[in-house]
UniProtKB/TrEMBL annotation:
Protein name listed in UniProt: Gypsy retrotransposon integrase-like protein 1
The UniProt record lists the keyword Hydrolase: yes
Species the sequence originates in: Labeo rohita (Indian major carp)
Molecular function GO terms recorded: aspartic-type endopeptidase activity; DNA binding; DNA-directed DNA polymerase activity; metal ion binding; RNA-directed DNA polymerase activity; RNA-DNA hybrid ribonuclease activity
GO biological process: DNA integration; DNA recombination; proteolysis
Domain of life: Eukaryota
UniProtKB keywords: Aspartyl protease, DNA integration, DNA recombination, DNA-binding, DNA-directed DNA polymerase, Endonuclease, Hydrolase, Magnesium, Metal-binding, Nuclease, Nucleotidyltransferase, Protease, RNA-directed DNA polymerase, Transferase
EC number in record: 2.7.7.49, 3.1.26.4
Family named by the database record: Belongs to the beta type-B retroviral polymerase family. HERV class-II K(HML-2) pol subfamily.
Pfam families for this protein: Asp_protease_2, Integrase_H2C2, RT_RNaseH, rve, RVT_1, SH3_Tf2-1
Domain Integrase catalytic intervals: 800-958
Sequence ranges assigned to domain Reverse transcriptase in this UniProt record: 255-434
Length: 1109
């Protein structure tokens, strides 16, 4: 088989089609200048900032720029950036580099001269015969060059790599002489001239230790144990050309020094370049997913108390830092594959222990303690890569320094002379200042509290009291000391900063910065860091829980934001507070599991994000070496760091903060973990008593409780002789469990019974049924979305009238099909006393049309009624309709919203619709043909309520139709006085009154069977029935919308069934059937508010009353 000279594939780029070369030696996809002009406009050309590219023949060429091109290969399309080269630098139209091969997933089989795609390996394509396409419109010189040396071009002009040097490279120490480094270190020593000469001799006599070169120890190797053996493979992050260039330069240096080597590993982690303070870029590997599956190394870190005790009596100190300490530890051969990282140039793995691995600190601590052995706690101690040598005299210190250097030389380790400090009389270590005078606390730990300025406003007083009150239990007589400050908060009190206020302020600050507020850290106890960021500054507090769970402050910190930082988003400011505090307290927090408490929940998202185009992710990568958990706490509960972040202090004031990585197996969406449950059980007084009683076997309820794995369980004996164990839930965790077992998607917002049964299976506490009932009943989602299955509220309230034309009802029926007379609406009037009706078909239902009909056909024909009742349609609330009513002295009344039953016209409309439907059949455009006849039918029909016809009550006589005239005989007694009109009307009124009374009683009895009483008080919280409308255009379904909205407050009662509620900043009249009580009620909210105030202002001392903060 012939060895291929070129790997040619057919492609299409815009209107151009041809052959392109696949070049695995080219870092970028290259495009000829003339082809770029054919497929793109000059505006699309982006400037190239990466410097010249080096071709395979060694010549450097500066690209003209770069563009994004859409490459079609077979039936697939890929968008990649292409570097534009000038005509003299490129012999072919397009060369496809490694970036195209990676993003397309191209699989190359050189031996069989075929290729396929990773997404479809079964479909293989042969490489094209012949050479790649040449660009059009090339110069004659270029064409001649290709004819005379085509074979040479095939081999030399296909590869382009970034330039070998750039300003964005890692720092090389080769340019610095070892002798210079030694002299610089000696000059900084606090020694006499003779002493410095002796120190110089010691350092020069250890050239294999005191050098800029990175050592390599054979004492131990780092091994990675993963819980999952399935390799984790990730794609590389895309980098800008400038960062790509810097990354390749650093990779080249690491390859040359043997730190990394090419790999065939199945593991792959991406690389990110993080800016340093000096502007250079640091090469970092994102090992977050590898760390998530790595088993923890339980090797202990030193105890700070023991370290400080070992310094007793020392007066001379030296600090030694190792050269890139981690890189001096070799990787175990079996674990090298797991350190593999992927870049556009290929796959590589580390030969040495890289930064960012989970157990790297434990391995390095084990190495240093093995190397120094018995010297620890005698002449030195070590904390990770920091070695502190201490002695009682200068002479002894020279001997001790020689011993330490000899141990390091034996182990093959080298030191970083730039960071080493020799023969000091005082050092700062782990938050303590150590000197020949003894050990004192680091003043910077409490500088944030000391620098808290005197308040100038009431808001600043409240902020300071919030900070101080957070730890008021540690300050004896807190309420007495704070009384002058608390008096400023009283209602009506004029703010005046007196001498007593200043004394109280100073005394509280003194208490907050003296024991027991600032305690000594214990590295065996987990740390807790509270952080907060405001618009002007950052604040944080470092604490630990000691002595039965009591929280002890280790350090305070805060600082103001710089000009650029002020423009950060809220999430970036919160993350800045975390990373700044973390690095400030790195000596406490590194390599230990701790908790970060913040009032910004977005940080939990940031830690799990894979986006790399923001400073947030670059900051997150700086936190890889820390092991922490984020706990979200609402801002109003995070008052202490909040006050620190808002206090106006200098930019140099220190801060302390923390951040924690969320372990993937901790299920952050679950409200309770085993650790939290255990801690809260032991903090609960009721459970603590039961645990003690069970342990002493003194509980009369021994059958009901049992301790399993140091947690209290409730036992229930089942019928089949089995025992059902349910964990006893402490009071602090009950709200979270209720929320989870009711509101979580796995629980589905079920009702009281189902929620209780679900929770009862796994948990127990006294009064669970009552708590579940209250929780479900107060659930906002359930209150707004569930149907009210009870009888509708509001019993019948009859409307009584005593004469015709006292009250009229009016309503609009429609729109109806346009009739032959062009009518679409029907205006209906009804008299409440006589039930007399009037119909008026209309073409348009405007306020002006209705007002005209009212004036011409009602008021001027039948007289002016006392009242006219309508719904809340726009026509009836318009100024035109109201002006007519006001002019004719008619009082308009409106029904309550969404309760049309109030208007008698609605009942007439139902009867009228049935009449119309009976005569139109399929000709619906003739609905107004028989309206006069239908009006006659209703007005001449005997009403069930009154027992007479509307005409008799309204006109004093019956209405007769044509058939009535034929069937009725002559009037037998026309002259009898009993048939006098007045007497007849009086009899009718008496008859109507009695008939109406009986009818109303019957209607009340029947109607109220389906109704219930419901009353509300002023200020009650209520839900208002919602009437949403579906919208296909907005993708909104009324069936899925809330059935109720609010809550609102009841302003006043308008009668037995109508209330005015506060709605959209105004009052609206609502019928009681559209209201329901909101839980918690107003009374319950008031009780809860008072209880919260009592909890806040309750002093722990029984003798003093805490005034609050």
């Amino acid at each position: 088989m012939t060895i291929p000279q070129q790997l040619v594939v057919p492609i299409r780029v815009g209107p151009w089609s041809g052959k392109a070369i696949l070049d695995t030696g080219a870092s970028y996809t290259l495009i000829h200048e003339s082809l770029m002009k054919q497929i793109a406009t000059p505006d699309e050309l982006q400037p190239w900032t990466g410097g010249p590219l080096y071709l395979a023949n060694g010549k450097a060429e500066s690209p003209l720029g770069w563009i994004n091109i859409n490459i079609h290969l077979h039936n697939k399309a890929f968008t990649v950036p292409a570097v534009v080269l000038p005509s003299q630098a490129l012999a072919y139209a397009i060369i496809l580099g490694l970036d195209f091969i990676f993003f397309s997933g191209l699989q190359i089989n050189v031996s069989e001269q075929k290729y396929s795609f990773k997404s479809d390996l079964a479909e293989e394509h042969p490489f094209q015969l012949g050479n790649a396409s040449e660009p059009l419109n090339t110069s004659p010189t270029m064409k001649e060059g290709k004819r005379t040396s085509k074979s040479k071009l095939n081999l030399t002009l296909l590869s382009a790599v970034p330039p070998p040097q750039s300003s964005l490279t890692i720092l090389h120490m080769d340019s610095v002489d070892d002798a210079t480094l030694i002299r610089d270190a000696v000059s900084k020593a606090q020694l006499s001239t003779d002493g410095k000469q002796q120190l110089l001799q010691i350092l020069e006599s250890n050239p294999r230790v005191c050098t800029h070169r990175t050592g390599r120890t054979d004492v131990l190797q780092h091994r990675i144990y993963t819980t999952c053996q399935v390799p984790i493979k990730q794609r590389p992050y895309r980098l800008s050309p400038v960062k790509q260039q810097a990354m390749e330069e650093q990779l080249e240096v690491m390859l040359k020094e043997g730190i990394v080597e090419p790999s065939h590993s199945a593991w792959a982690s991406p690389v990110v370049l993080v800016p340093k303070k000096n502007g250079n870029l640091r090469f970092c590997v994102d090992y977050r997913k590898v760390n998530a599956t790595t088993e923890s190394d339980a090797y202990p870190l030193p105890n700070i108390a023991e370290i400080l005790e070992s310094l007793s009596g020392a007066s001379i100190f030296s600090t030694i830092d190792l050269n890139s300490g981690y890189w001096q530890v070799e990787m175990d051969p079996d674990s090298k594959a797991k350190t593999a990282f992927i870049v556009s140039a290929g796959l590589y793995h580390f030969n040495v222990m890289p930064f960012g691995l989970k157990n790297a600190p434990a391995t390095f601590q084990r190495l240093m303690e093995t190397v120094l052995g018995e010297l620890r706690k005698k002449i030195c101690f070590v904390y990770i890569d920091d070695i502190i040598i201490y002695s009682t005299s200068v002479a002894q210190h020279f001997c001790d320094l020689k011993t330490i250097l000899h141990r390091l030389e034996t182990a093959g380790l080298t030191i970083n002379l730039k960071k080493c400090k020799f023969f000091l009389s005082e050092i700062t270590f782990l938050g303590h200042v150590v000197s020949n005078k003894g050990i004192t606390a680091d003043p910077s730990k409490v500088e944030a509290i000391r620098a808290f300025p005197a308040p100038n406003t009431l808001k600043e007083v409240q902020r300071f009291l919030g900070l101080a009150g957070w730890y008021h239990r540690f300050v004896p007589n807190f309420s007495k000391i704070a009384e002058p400050l608390n008096s400023l908060k009283k209602k009506g009190q004029v703010f005046k900063w007196t001498t007593q206020c200043q004394q109280a302020f100073d005394q509280l600050k003194a208490c907050l910065t003296s024991p027991p507020i600032l305690g000594h850290p214990d590295l065996q106890v987990p740390f807790i860091v509270y952080t907060d960021a405001s618009d002007t500054g950052l604040g944080a507090i470092l604490t630990q829980r000691k002595d039965l769970g009591k929280e002890e402050v280790i350090a305070y910190a805060s600082r103001t934001l710089t000009g650029a930082e002020i423009n950060y988003t809220a999430t970036e400011k919160e993350c800045l507070a975390v990373i700044w505090a973390l690095e400030k307290w790195e000596h406490y927090l590194e390599y230990k599991l701790f908790t970060v408490v913040t009032d910004h929940s977005a940080l939990q998202w940031v830690m799990g994000s894979t986006k790399t185009n923001s400073r947030l992710i670059r900051w997150v990568l700086r936190l890889q070496k820390f092991n922490f958990i984020i706990e979200y706490r609402k801002g109003k509960l995070n008052v202490a760091p909040d006050a620190l972040s808002r206090s106006l202090i200098t930019a140099n004031s220190p801060i302390t903060a923390l951040y924690a990585k969320q372990k993937t197996d901790q299920h952050p969406e679950l409200p309770v973990t085993d650790i939290v449950l255990w801690e809260e059980q032991h903090n609960d007084c009721e459970i603590t008593k039961l645990l003690q009683a069970v342990a002493e076997e003194q509980s009369p309820q021994m059958d009901q409780y049992e301790v399993v794995e140091d947690k209290l369980y409730h036992k229930t004996h089942l019928k089949n002789d089995q025992i059902h164990y349910r964990v006893y839930v402490p009071g602090s965790l009950r709200p979270a469990l209720l929320q989870h077992y009711h509101s979580h998607p796995l629980s589905g917002h079920c009702g009281i019974y189902k929620t209780y049964k679900r929770l009862q299976e796994v948990a127990f506490w006294p009064g669970m049924w009552t708590d579940v009932k209250h929780h479900v009943r107060e659930c906002v989602k359930c209150q707004t979305l569930r149907h009210d299955n009870r009888k509708p509220a509001g019993k019948l309230q009859p409307i009584s009238t005593t004469k015709p034309n006292e009250m009229l009802g009016v309503d609009i029926m429609g729109p109806l099909p346009r009739s032959t007379q062009q009518n679409e609406y029907l205006l209906v009037f009804v008299d409440y006393y006589s039930r007399w009706v009037e119909f008026f078909p209309m073409r348009h239902a405007t306020a002006q049309s209705i007002a005209t009909i009212l004036r011409k056909e009602i008021l001027t024909r039948w007289g002016v009624p006392d009242f006219i009742l309508s719904d809340r349609g726009t026509q009836f609330v318009s100024s035109v309709f109201r002006e007519v009513c006001e002019k004719w002295k008619v009082t308009p009344k409106l029904t309550t919203a969404y309760h049309p039953q109030t208007n008698m016209t609605e009942r007439v409309n139902r009867t009228l619709k049935n009449m119309i439907a009976s005569y139109v059949d399929d000709n619906h455009n003739k609905w107004d043909q028989f309206l006069p006849e239908m009006r006659f039918a209703i007005n001449s029909a005997i009403q069930e309520t009154t027992g007479v016809t509307p005409a008799e009550l309204h006109l004093g006589r019956k209405l007769e139709g044509p058939m009535d005239k034929i069937l009725h005989g002559p009037d037998l007694t026309p002259d009898t006085t009993s048939y006098d009109v007045i007497s007849h009307i009086q009899q009718l009124q008496c008859q109507v009154k009695e008939s109406s009374r009986k009818a109303q009683q019957r209607q009340l009895r029947n109607y109220n069977k389906r109704r219930r009483d419901s009353t509300f008080k002023i200020k009650d919280r209520v839900w208002l029935r919602n009437f949403p409308q579906s919208s296909a255009q907005n993708k909104f379904s009324a069936k899925l919308a809330p059935k109720w909205k609010g809550p609102y407050r009841v302003l006043t009662s308008l009668g037995p069934v109508n209330y005015r509620i506060a709605l959209e900043a105004t009052g609206e009249d609502v019928h009681v059937c559209n209201l329901k009580m909101c839980f918690p009620t107003a009374e319950q909210l008031e009780v809860q508010r008072k209880k919260r105030l009592q909890d806040i202002f309750q002093e722990t001392s029984d003798e003093e009353e805490f005034l609050g903060f």
